[in-house]
């Protein structure tokens, strides 16, 4: 198998969201296989580890919050508007044509970058699964199909799974390019469920590459993060319950707050000791009220809530005040328990991070957890995803007893987290990732080499 120059394209990279984190893992795996990496993104919160600075290309038009993206979101996705926007069919048609024209222009600019960096194959990260970078999706589709550049579409979730996008005025466009089903393209998804859906709807047969984690280099308490508790104002005997995710509604953080409130009510000794930490920021989903709602719910239930996203980043660094920025891994090695109660997840990066950090996890039995994660025999505290008439997760009494038991029986806790670590390392470690990526590249090898020849020809014609 040849070594290739591979470009990742995404609305953003170098962040702490699942897509950014998974891209970094793929980059690490592909580099270890001898491939060279370029990244193309709308913005970078932090530099992407392992990629040369001059090979991290910024194209602002790809941003999730670009002026064009915000403009077209208001027109095409009514659910995103607090005030309804009414337009005639002719105006809608004009807007769609305008959007397509801008997307194709961006596609030409993207192809110029491809030629400049001699890209053999693009890996498109959710650009053609979620319309959060609509112009980017059109541009990537244009480069993949009209320019016939070898492209692997890596889908983390799909637009029809989000109410804010499923209600839209551009279904024909989305059906055509998100994701595309054109011949000569490869697709990868992160779960067997996603593979089933994609093959059913699109007649596309994707590779299944689960989210993975670096279990060979698990997070530990070291010289850098040893002071985390004191730096953030926690006592050594505080019980840190961590929600290691961004603050978005599908994470159902309100259910975690209610869980902790119920635990404190049943076991009053936890009232002063438990500190509930949400490590990441509110991001990418337009909801101005959710953080305020979580704060109010925590205060009402006497749950001591700490939002520490200003001290957590994708990489270790310092902020403007010279204070340490920790990673999510640094936070997790100090956690006594992790809450992870989503109603829906594409996979579960944060759950794998917790298992690598050897922290017990309380999780809902969301769909992909049941089909792809639980199967090897992981032993987590599981709450069935059953909701009452008010939409609250039903938390059985025995769950509180299980949490209390694991917090008060250290030897049993150690046995469970060590077993979970061994299982997760085998199923979701970097060796699994490397093998699956090797299979994808091998399977697509002929098309990538043919794409390389087409690009060389295009560059010769372009230079004349």
Automatic annotation (TrEMBL):
InterPro entries: Glyco_trans_1. The keyword Coiled coil applies. Keywords: Coiled coil, Glycosyltransferase, Transferase. Its EC number is 2.4.-.-. It holds the Pfam family Glycos_transf_1. Residues 430-461 form a coiled coil. One of its GO terms (molecular function) is glycosyltransferase activity. CDD domains: GT4_PimA-like. Residues 228-366 form the Glycosyl transferase family domain. This is Glycosyltransferase family 4 protein. It comes from Rarispira pelagica.
């Amino acid at each position: 198998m040849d070594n290739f120059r591979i470009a990742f394209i995404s609305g953003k990279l170098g962040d702490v969201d699942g897509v950014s984190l998974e891209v970094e893992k793929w980059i690490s795996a592909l580099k270890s296989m001898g491939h060279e990496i370029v990244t193309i993104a709308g913005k970078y919160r932090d530099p992407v580890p392992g990629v040369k600075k001059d090979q991290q290309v910024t194209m602002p038009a790809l941003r999730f919050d670009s002026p064009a993206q915000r403009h077209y979101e208001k027109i095409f996705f009514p659910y995103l508007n607090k005030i309804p926007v009414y337009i005639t069919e002719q105006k809608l048609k004009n807007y769609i044509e305008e959007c397509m024209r801008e997307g194709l222009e961006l596609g030409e600019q993207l192809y110029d970058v491809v030629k400049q960096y001699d890209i053999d194959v693009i890996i498109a990260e959710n650009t053609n699964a979620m319309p959060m970078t609509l112009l980017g999706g059109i541009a990537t589709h244009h480069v993949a199909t009209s320019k016939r550049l070898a492209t692997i579409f890596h889908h983390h979730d799909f637009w029809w799974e989000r109410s804010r996008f499923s209600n839209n005025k551009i279904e024909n466009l989305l059906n055509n390019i998100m994701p595309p089903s054109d011949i000569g393209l490869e697709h990868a998804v992160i779960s067997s469920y996603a593979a089933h859906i994609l093959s059913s709807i699109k007649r596309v047969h994707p590779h299944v590459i689960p989210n993975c984690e670096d279990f060979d280099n698990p997070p530990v308490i070291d010289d850098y993060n040893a002071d985390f508790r004191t730096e953030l104002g926690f006592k050594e005997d505080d019980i840190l319950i961590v929600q290691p995710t961004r603050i978005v509604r599908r994470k159902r953080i309100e259910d975690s707050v209610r869980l902790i409130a119920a635990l404190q009510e049943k076991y009053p000794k936890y009232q002063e000791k438990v500190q509930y930490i949400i490590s990441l920021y509110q991001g990418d989903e337009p909801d101005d009220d959710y953080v305020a709602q979580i704060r109010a719910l925590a205060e009402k239930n006497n749950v001591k809530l700490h939002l520490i996203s200003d001290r957590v980043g994708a990489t270790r660094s310092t902020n403007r005040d010279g204070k340490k920025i920790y990673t999510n891994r640094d936070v997790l090695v100090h956690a006594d328990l992790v809450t992870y109660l989503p109603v829906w997840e594409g996979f579960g990066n944060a759950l794998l991070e917790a298992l690598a950090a050897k922290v017990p996890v309380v999780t809902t039995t969301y769909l992909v957890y049941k089909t792809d994660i639980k199967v090897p025999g992981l032993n987590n505290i599981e709450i069935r995803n059953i909701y009452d008439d008010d939409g609250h997760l039903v938390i059985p009494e025995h769950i509180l007893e299980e949490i209390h038991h694991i917090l008060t029986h250290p030897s049993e806790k150690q046995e469970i987290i060590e077993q979970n670590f061994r299982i997760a390392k085998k199923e979701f470690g970097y060796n699994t990732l490397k093998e699956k990526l090797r299979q994808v590249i091998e399977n697509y090898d002929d098309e990538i080499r043919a794409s390389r020849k087409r690009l060389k020809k295009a560059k010769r014609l372009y230079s004349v």
